[in-house]
C-alpha cells in the first residue's frame, strides 16, 4: 500500500492502554506500513533497557537522579511513575519530532494522558487526539505479557494491577476512540482509520 498524505490536522496521536495489550506492535505496523509519515516521541525512563532496546531509540535511559533533575528543570510535558519507574515525555522530544513535519505519536500511560488532557488549553499544552487500546480480556492480557517474556513475575503482577486501573480510567470516556486489540489485523485497520480519518 502506498502512504496516504498525513491527516490534514497533523495533530499528535496519543496511544495508551495496559502494558502488554499490543501498543508497540500496532505502532510498529503503522510505521512500517506508512514510512515517512510518523515520528514517535522518545521518552525518558529510569527502567532498565530490555534486550534490543537502544539508547535514544526506544527510550533515553537515565538514572533516578537525572530524572528528578529533569523534573525540577520543568523539562517534561508530562511524566509519571509506572510499576516503580519514572517515565516522561520531554518538551525537547516533542519539538524534535514536530520539526520533522510528520505526525507525532506518543505511547504513554494514563497519568500522562490525564496531565496532557488537563494542560491542552495552556500555552505549553499539546493539542492531541487520544486512542485507547483495550485487551479482549484480562486473561488474554496476562497471556500476552507472559508470552512477551520481558518482565519478572513481580513486575508482571504490578503491570496487571495497573492494567485494571487503566481500564477503569478508559471507562470515563476520556479517549477519542477505544479499540479492542483482539484480532491484530482488525485492530490495526481500526487504528489506521482513526489516524487518517477520511483521508485514507
Ligand atoms: P505493549 O506495547 O502494549 O506493552 P506489545 O506490543 O509489546 O504490548 O505486545 C505484547 C505481546 O502481545 C507481544 O508479544 C505481541 O506480539 C503480542 N500481541 C500484540 N497484539 C496481539 C494480538 N492481537 N493477539 C495476540 N498477541 C498479540
Ligand atoms: P514499558 O516499560 O513497557 O516500555 O512501558 C510501560 C508503560 O509506560 C506503558 O504503558 C507506556 O505507554 C508508558 N510510557 C512510556 N513512556 C512514557 C512516558 O513518557 N510518559 C508516560 N506517562 N508513560 C509512558
Automatic annotation (TrEMBL):
Annotated GO MF terms: ATP binding; GMP kinase activity
Domain Guanylate kinase-like, first and last residues per copy: 10-196
Keyword set, alphabetical order: ATP-binding, Kinase, Nucleotide-binding, Transferase
EC number(s) per entry: 2.7.4.8
Residues covered by region (Disordered): 1-20
One GO term describing the cellular component: cytosol
Family: Belongs to the guanylate kinase family.
PANTHER family per record: GUANYLATE KINASE, GUANYLATE KINASE-RELATED
Official protein name in the record: Guanylate kinase
Amino acid at each position: 500500500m502506498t502512504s496516504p498524505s498525513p491527516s490534514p490536522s497533523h495533530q499528535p496521536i496519543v496511544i495508551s492502554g495496559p502494558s502488554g495489550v499490543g501498543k508497540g506492535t500496532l505502532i510498529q505496523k503503522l510505521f512500517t506500513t506508512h514510512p515517512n509519515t510518523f515520528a514517535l516521541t522518545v521518552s525518558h525512563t529510569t527502567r532498565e533497557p530490555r534486550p534490543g532496546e537502544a539508547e535514544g531509540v526506544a527510550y533515553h535511559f537515565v538514572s533516578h537522579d537525572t530524572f528528578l533533575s529533569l523534573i525540577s528543570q520543568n523539562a517534561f510535558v508530562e511524566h509519571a511513575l509506572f510499576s516503580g519507574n519514572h517515565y516522561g515525555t520531554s518538551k525537547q522530544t516533542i519539538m524534535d519530532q514536530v520539526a520533522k513535519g510528520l505526525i507525532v505519536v506518543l505511547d504513554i500511560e494514563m497519568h500522562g494522558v490525564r496531565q496532557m488532557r488537563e494542560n491542552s488549553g495552556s500555552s505549553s499544552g499539546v493539542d492531541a487526539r487520544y486512542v485507547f487500546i483495550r485487551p479482549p480480556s484480562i486473561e488474554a492480557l496476562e497471556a500476552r505479557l507472559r508470552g512477551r517474556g520481558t518482565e519478572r513475575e513481580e513486575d508482571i503482577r504490578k503491570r496487571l494491577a495497573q492494567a485494571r486501573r487503566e481500564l477503569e480510567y478508559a471507562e470515563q470516556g476520556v479517549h477519542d476512540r477505544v479499540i479492542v486489540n483482539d484480532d491484530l489485523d482488525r485492530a490495526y485497520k481500526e487504528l489506521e482509520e482513526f489516524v487518517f480519518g477520511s483521508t485514507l
